[in-house]
Amino acid sequence: MAQVLQLTFANIAGDTMTININDPKPNLTEAEVNAAMQTIIDQAVFSKDGFLYNVKKSARIVERNVTAIELNS
């Protein structure tokens, strides 16, 4: 099962952006995710129209199953 860690940030203008990280470390803790998001905020590297994404909005791990279907040729 494929997993993606999605970290969503907001800025003062109300815009959001999401960072997707494939195959996150198993058993991530809330403390680890919060610390990682705070490090990203502290580095002030993401902005839009001059507004920094400096608010932690949400974090989640998304799991998906993929089933290939054989095609006739």
Describe the protein's architecture and organization.
- With 73 residues, this protein is of the alpha+beta class.
- Helices cover 19% and strands 45% of the residues.
- The protein is built from one helix and four strands.
- The protein has one helix spanning 30-43; strands spanning 2-11, 16-22, 47-48, 51-64.
- A four-stranded antiparallel sheet has the order 2-1-4-3, with helices on one face.
- It is elongated.
- The mean pLDDT is 96.
Keywords, separated by commas or semicolons:
alpha+beta; four-stranded antiparallel beta sheet; elongated
Going by helix content, strand content and strand pairing, the class is: alpha+beta
Count the strands? 4
State the distance separating the first and last CA atoms. 28 Å
Q: Give the amount of beta strand, in percent.
A: over 45%
Q: What do the pLDDT scores average to? A: 96
Any idea what the radius of gyration is?
16 Å
- Report the major sheet: 4 strands, antiparallel
Helix count, DSSP H or I runs of 4 or more residues: 1
Low-confidence stretches: none
Give the arrangement of secondary structure elements.
Elements: E1 2-11, E2 16-22, H1 30-43, E3 47-48, E4 51-64
Short description:
By secondary structure, the protein is of the alpha+beta class. It is 19% helix and 45% strand.
